[in-house]
Design a protein that fits this description.
Elements (H helix, E strand, L loop, with lengths): L1 E11 L2 E5 L4 E6 L1 H4 L13 E6 L5 E6 L5 E8 L2 E9 L3 E7 L7 H14 L3 E6 L7 H11 L2 E4 L8 H8 L3 E5 L6 H8 L3 H13 L7 E6 L5 E4 L21 H4 L19 H7 L5 H11 L4
Zinc ion binds next to helix 8.
Length: 299
């Protein structure tokens, strides 16, 4: 028996593949960890764990290190709600949208950005298929002026791939975006085989709850991992109060303290700094629209 530490790189049906740096050990949770009624996944991909390697080469997960961050969604179960961990300890989330084909749904992007802000996960926008439009900045430039990093790519022509590669390097990356925007193509262009593997898992997960769910980290040459996290659309803002939402819009954050009323909803109040900024063209009407929508709990 040997005690060591490692990173969970794959999880399936109660089994965890732990990369110790030397080996990958297939582990199960130690009985002690499973005691009590769990509020959520005890272990997940991205978790750092202490394990014991048994004489037969299998292992047990003895303890899970505290998570810095996590991407989770609620899974309603009889008798309560359960937190499904899609990825533990993400360093950043990359939201991939296409400039065209499909038409970028920026209100969906705004929702993803709000979830990332809430979870404290740095977000990077990848604007793919730049080869299909004249001026990609006309679509995504507003996010740069708000302060987000936008990487302009084309998996077809190779534009921006080096920038994307260095953004991913040595980090635990969550990759998300609507289907058809080119996520698999981008990953394949960066490293042949990577996108194909991710795509297989995405389609297995779409088939629903009767399919065994495998979650996996894909290693990037030179260091770092990519995890496909297809759940963002359903990652509701479950534990979010309407009053918090303005804090998750970087361009509103600094304004709200100047509103006349401390409980300002920024929709009709006199002396509202957000409405003034909107009138003066200092914030984007589209982003304001997303704010109102998310605050009212709609989609
Ligand atoms: P995913 O569902 O996000 O993984 O998207 P895919 O990688 O499967 O790509 C969807 C379609 O878009 C495929 O037909 C790709 O060939 C095409 N595609 C991907 N990236 C680009 C790009 O940068 N430019 C163009 N013109 N087509 C692309
Ligand atoms: Zn206000």
């Amino acid at each position: 028996m040997t005690n060591t530490q490692g990173l969970i790189v794959k999880a399936q049906s109660g089994f965890f593949w732990v990369n110790t740096g030397e080996d990958i050990i297939v582990c199960q949770l130690r009985g002690k960890l499973k005691q009590g009624r769990a509020q959520g996944d005890i272990a997940a991909i991205g978790d750092k764990v202490d394990i014991t390697i048994l004489d037969d080469g299998s292992g047990t997960v003895d303890s899970v290190h505290e998570r810095n961050q996590l991407i989770a969604r609620l899974d309603p179960r009889p008798g309560g709600v359960y937190q499904q961990v899609l990825l533990a300890n993400p360093d950043q989330a990359l939201f991939v949208f296409a400039c065209a084909n499909p038409t970028p749904r920026l209100r969906m992007l705004d929702r993803f950005l709000v979830i990332a802000e809430k979870q404290n996960i740095p977000a990077v926008i990848v604007a793919n298929k730049t080869d299909t439009v004249e001026n990609p900045q006309a679509i995504f430039g507003m996010y740069e002026s708000i302060g987000y990093r936008v990487i302009y790519t084309s998996a077809k022509t190779g534009t921006g791939l080096d920038t994307l590669r260095s953004q991913l390097q040595n980090k635990l990356n969550a990759f998300a975006g609507p289907s058809g925007v080119g996520k698999s193509s981008l990953l394949n262009a960066l490293q042949p085989g990577l996108g194909l593997a991710v795509n297989e898992i995405s389609s297995a997960m779409k088939k629903g709850r009767h399919t065994t769910v495998t979650r996996q980290l894909f290693a990037i040459d030179g260091g770092g991992y990519v995890a496909d996290t297809p759940g963002w659309k359903s990652l509701g803002l479950w534990d979010t109060e309407p009053e918090e939402i303005d804090a998750y819009f970087p361009e509103l954050r600094g304004l709200v303290e100047n509103c006349q009323f401390s409980d300002c909803t920024h929709q009709h109040e006199p002396g509202c700094a957000v409405l003034t900024a909107l009138k003066e063209g200092k914030i984007f009407p589209e982003r304001y629209e997303s704010f109102v929508r998310l605050r009212s709990g709609k989609e």
